[in-house]
Amino acid sequence: MDLTSLLPLDFNVSLLSCFHFSDGLWKAVFPLKEEDLSVVYSYDGKTMEADVLDTEGEKFPLFYLPSPGPFSSLVREEVEELLSSLVHKFSPDDSEMRKRVLSLFKGKYGIEGDRPWSDDDESIVLRSKKNNKWIGLLMDIPSSKLGLSGEEKVDVINLKHSQSHIPHIIDRHFVFPAWHMSKKTWITVLLSKDLDWEYFTSLVEESRRLVEG
Description:
Helix content is 25%, strand content 24%. The chain is built from four helices and nine strands. It has helices spanning 70-86, 94-109, 166-169, 197-212; strands at 20-22, 25-31, 38-43, 48-53, 124-127, 134-142, 153-160, 175-177, 186-190. Strands 5-6-7-9-8 form a five-stranded antiparallel β-sheet, covered by helices on one side. A four-stranded antiparallel β-sheet has the order 1-2-3-4, with no helix packed on it. The longest helix is centred in the middle third of the chain and has 17 residues, at 70-86. The two termini are 40 Å apart.
């Protein structure tokens, strides 16, 4: 059953701890109230599907009827209401962006960050699983290090980028010359809640591509 229409426009499945990534799909399983049934939600990045299974793990046929009866209608309502309660509209503030980035690396690339410096609990290195090289360096630094006003700490990530393209993407709002790394081949991205997420994920993918060859 296709439930994609229930998803908010800014839906990001990696923020929901109940979903787990496996074999190219995000999945979550929940028991239902009726007849020892359970629902399996599957999300491929575009489409949210729901399947209702019996105690043997077989699909419950009444759920899929074009014209459901009273019982299967109740099951459908429960399946839709449960999903709606899970995928409420999410508007992360700046402090949540760090969690969102870590979820992206873990969910899409299977990468868990590590903290290589004993005196620094905030910096996290995100390494390629293919060759152990750095794809990203997550840090919090004074905003003044980016040429911004104030001294408050901000979350940033250093990403590798094509040397010829770097001058064209530096906007000093979200993308800055790399701090503490080579400005020829790295950029620093400010993890602001206003950062376009799709654009950011493309920068991460480009960094992975360059690092892994």
